[in-house]
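queue> holo job accepted (adenosine-5'-triphosphate)
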Amino acid sequence: MIVPSIVSVKNLSKSFEKKRILNAIDLQVYPGEILGLLGPSGAGKTTLIKEIIGLDLPDNGSIHVLDEKMPNLNIMSKIGYMAQADALYQDLTARENLDFFARLYGLKGIEKKNRIESTAILVELSEHLSKPVSQYSGGMKRRLSICIALLNNPKLLILDEPTVGIDPILRKAIWQTFNKLKENGTSIIVTTHVMDEAEKCDRLGMIRNGQLIAIDTPSNLMSNCNAQTMEEAFLYYGGLANEN
Ligand SMILES: Nc1ncnc2c1ncn2[C@@H]1O[C@H](COP(=O)(O)OP(=O)(O)OP(=O)(O)O)[C@@H](O)[C@H]1O
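queue> job finished
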């Protein structure tokens, strides 16, 4: 049986100033899965997700999201995106921030109110919506950013390093949120360079120097090369296993 993909990337290449940043990437994201993109800083993860969202154009290859060729404004409005840096209004309360972004998504009245309430419950911020964002901790700001990305009830949620600088307890809570969303049918792409976080994804694409060097379930990636850790597996697929 052929499972229709939510995201289909074919032979994608991208250069900046004559430097090849992404090289012939093929990638599928299936309904209700968490796909991790693991790679060191500068590997090309952010560039890849910007191409998928439609924020940048590829030099070669094609990207389809929900069966439409990207970039496509209508599809862009069905994607929830959280960038690496929080884009929040510090002087406003969390509720005012959510209200502002909900209006941008065209939500109004009772529907707007309900979406704000239900997404705040998901990220466990309901009790703190009246506080100004300037009084939020780093972890709370990250959760508020996730909450904003969820306001339009996206079919596809893309998170660029969502748990950087977040302590292990909060990180666990955030992953519980991702799993809840996945159970509700949302597909999630999450970039990371944290190995233990990579193991929580359903499938993992390893990116190095703009190339997708391996993609499979975390357990297959490790067992196929007899690696004990994800780091060992990454070194193996990157052809670095015997280097010091
Ligand atoms: N607009 C741009 N113009 C020129 N070079 C760029 C541009 N955007 C990205 N790059 C370069 O592309 C390479 C990949 O960057 P990218 O941000 O995609 O990596 P990354 O894997 O997401 O890294 P990090 O984990 O640090 O966020 C880097 O060398 C970066 O300097």
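queue> The pocket of adenosine-5'-triphosphate is lined by residues 16-17, 21, 39, 41-47, 193 (CB under 6 Å).
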